[in-house]
């Protein structure tokens, strides 16, 4: 492509320079002709005003005086002919003496009216630039003077100018050609010497890949402006159609990418999505890739809940084995009554907790979560209790979001209680308030200030601290995302510790019956 452009540009430059050179030559030729006519006119006027010429016109044979005088003027001025004639056009002088007495070839009508004229005319000496001036005596035209310069002499005078113009044209062509060669050399480097067909094929492949990949892709320049965004990135980040060319910090979902810093598998929470973001510097800007892990995050949350429940069952089995050994030992020591009281007491306490959870919560996933969280909290020295008046009917909310909201709030409450002095306690409440499901988690920690609450829910970014998808520090942000997705709201107050109250619109009104 660069070679084709080079040949085309050289051809265009050659045509332009040739046209300019031709125009310059034409203009110079026209100017030289005008100069020759002006020179002839001034000489003719001088001759017509000479008394000797006027007096000679009244002689019987004017040629005897006018021929030598005209030749003298012609030689001194460098013109090609000086002709003095009668009003009828009969020559009294001429460089070719055989033409004396013959009629002048040219236009004389205007001169006979007392006017001076200039023209290009072909006479006995060939084409010439000439001037014809009347000789007046007492207001009467007594004769005419014609002075001319043949075109061959005008062209000889142009030869120096033409050589200069030709040299200038060649230099202009050389400079333009050199500039074109440099531009095309740069073009070859920028296009890697690819031709139009290769570039067209690359663009088709690039466009197909850009819109076919399932990952979001953005390109930002060094000033933080969006230079490219594919369909998936536009969908994941809810970007408008005119996002290209605008600054990244002008969009809430892109504000943290505008600095161009390198990021590896960072979690970005938008209004209803969990995105894994990678950003690396490239070509004076940065490349950003996005992966949608919203569903995977939800499944991971459920898996964490099940894993926690399994761990609590394992811990409970271990504790049951210890209690069983204790009962067997008491029986072996003959303390049957103490063994019976110890066994029935532990069983009643465990059964009471399980019965309370099952009676209050109809959602099986949430039941498993609460039982698992109770065991985990117990292992960490925190008493996690369920409000006796708690009520969560089946179908009032999406189970996955309930796990996300309740699980993260309980984890947050247990962490806060562990960090505070004893007694360490966390309480979970749930009830229906009209068309809303109210979830409340309170702890015995130190509570949260207003600025801390805003920061916790607005964080939305965290680097993974382990191999799991979601790293630390995103619990409340995930809660806020789930609540926002369902059109609910979160209130944070302070009692003995922090009290988080979540209100969610009931998904299925039939569940209220």
UniProtKB/TrEMBL annotation:
<keyword id="KW-1133">Transmembrane helix</keyword>
<keyword id="KW-0597">Phosphoprotein</keyword>
<dbReference type="Pfam" id="PF17203">
    <property type="entry name" value="sCache_3_2"/>
</dbReference>
<keyword id="KW-0418">Kinase</keyword>
<dbReference type="InterPro" id="IPR033463">
    <property type="entry name" value="sCache_3"/>
</dbReference>
<dbReference type="InterPro" id="IPR004358">
    <property type="entry name" value="Sig_transdc_His_kin-like_C"/>
</dbReference>
<dbReference type="InterPro" id="IPR036890">
    <property type="entry name" value="HATPase_C_sf"/>
</dbReference>
<keyword id="KW-1003">Cell membrane</keyword>
<feature type="domain" description="Histidine kinase">
    <location>
        <begin position="287"/>
        <end position="508"/>
    </location>
</feature>
<dbReference type="InterPro" id="IPR003594">
    <property type="entry name" value="HATPase_dom"/>
</dbReference>
<dbReference type="InterPro" id="IPR000014">
    <property type="entry name" value="PAS"/>
</dbReference>
<dbReference type="InterPro" id="IPR035965">
    <property type="entry name" value="PAS-like_dom_sf"/>
</dbReference>
<feature type="transmembrane region" description="Helical">
    <location>
        <begin position="6"/>
        <end position="26"/>
    </location>
</feature>
<dbReference type="InterPro" id="IPR029151">
    <property type="entry name" value="Sensor-like_sf"/>
</dbReference>
<keyword id="KW-0067">ATP-binding</keyword>
<dbReference type="InterPro" id="IPR005467">
    <property type="entry name" value="His_kinase_dom"/>
</dbReference>
<protein>
    <recommendedName>
        <fullName>histidine kinase</fullName>
        <ecNumber>2.7.13.3</ecNumber>
    </recommendedName>
</protein>
<dbReference type="GO" id="GO:0000155">
    <property type="term" value="F:phosphorelay sensor kinase activity"/>
</dbReference>
<keyword id="KW-0547">Nucleotide-binding</keyword>
<keyword id="KW-0472">Membrane</keyword>
<keyword id="KW-0808">Transferase</keyword>
<dbReference type="GO" id="GO:0005524">
    <property type="term" value="F:ATP binding"/>
</dbReference>
<dbReference type="GO" id="GO:0005886">
    <property type="term" value="C:plasma membrane"/>
</dbReference>
<keyword id="KW-0902">Two-component regulatory system</keyword>
<keyword id="KW-0812">Transmembrane</keyword>
<dbReference type="Pfam" id="PF02518">
    <property type="entry name" value="HATPase_c"/>
</dbReference>
């Amino acid at each position: 492509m660069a070679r084709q452009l080079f040949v085309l540009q050289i051809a265009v430059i050659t045509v332009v320079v040739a046209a300019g050179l031709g125009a310059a030559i034409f203009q110079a030729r026209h100017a030289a002709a005008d100069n020759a006519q002006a020179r002839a006119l001034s000489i003719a006027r001088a001759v017509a005003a000479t008394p000797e010429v006027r007096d000679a016109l009244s002689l019987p044979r004017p040629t005897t005086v006018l021929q030598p005088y005209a030749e003298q003027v012609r030689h001194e001025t460098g013109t090609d002919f000086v002709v003095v004639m009668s009003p009828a056009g009969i020559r009294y002088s001429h460089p070719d003496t055989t033409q004396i007495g013959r009629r002048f070839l040219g236009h004389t009508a205007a001169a006979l009216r007392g006017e001076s004229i200039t023209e290009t005319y072909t006479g006995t000496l060939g084409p010439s630039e000439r001037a014809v001036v009347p000789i007046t005596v007492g207001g009467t035209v007594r004769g005419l003077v014609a002075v001319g310069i043949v075109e061959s002499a005008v062209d000889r005078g142009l030869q120096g100018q033409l050589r200069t113009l030709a040299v200038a044209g060649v230099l202009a062509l050389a400079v333009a050609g050199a500039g074109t060669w440099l531009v095309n050399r740069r073009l070859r480097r920028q296009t890697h010497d690819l031709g139009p067909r290769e570039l067209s094929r690359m663009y088709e492949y690039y466009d197909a890949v850009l819109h076919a990949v399932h990952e979001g892709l953005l390109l930002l320049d060094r000033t933080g402006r969006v230079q490219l965004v594919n369909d998936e990135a536009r969908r994941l980040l809810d970007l408008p159609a005119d996002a290209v060319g605008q600054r990244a910090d002008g969009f809430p979902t892109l504000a943290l990418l505008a600095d161009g810093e390198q990021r590896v598998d960072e979690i970005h929470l938008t209004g209803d999505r969990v995105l894994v973001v990678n950003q690396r510097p490239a070509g004076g800007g940065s490349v950003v890739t996005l992966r949608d892990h919203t569903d995977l995050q939800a499944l991971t949350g459920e898996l964490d809940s099940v894993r926690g429940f399994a761990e609590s069952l394992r811990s409970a089995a271990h504790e049951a084995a210890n209690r069983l050994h204790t009962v067997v030992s008491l029986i072996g020591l003959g303390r049957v009554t103490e063994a019976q009281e110890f066994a029935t007491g532990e069983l009643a306490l465990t059964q009471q907790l399980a019965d309370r959870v099952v009676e209050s919560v109809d959602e099986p996933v949430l039941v498993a979560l609460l039982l698992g969280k109770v065991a985990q909290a117990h292992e960490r020295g925190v008493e996690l209790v369920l409000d006796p008046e708690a009520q969560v009917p089946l179908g009032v909310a999406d189970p996955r979001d309930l796990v996300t909201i309740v699980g993260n709030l309980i984890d947050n409450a247990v962490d806060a209680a562990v960090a505070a002095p004893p007694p360490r306690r966390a309480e979970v409440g749930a009830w229906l308030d009209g068309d809303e499901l109210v979830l409340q988690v309170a702890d015995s920690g130190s509570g949260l200030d207003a600025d801390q609450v805003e920061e916790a829910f607005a964080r939305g970014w965290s680097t993974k601290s382990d191999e799991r998808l979601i790293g630390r520090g995103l619990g409340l942000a995930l809660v806020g995302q789930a609540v926002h997705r369902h059109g609910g709201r979160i209130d944070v107050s302070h009692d003995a510790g922090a009290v988080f109250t979540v209100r969610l619109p009931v998904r299925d009104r039939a569940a209220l019956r």
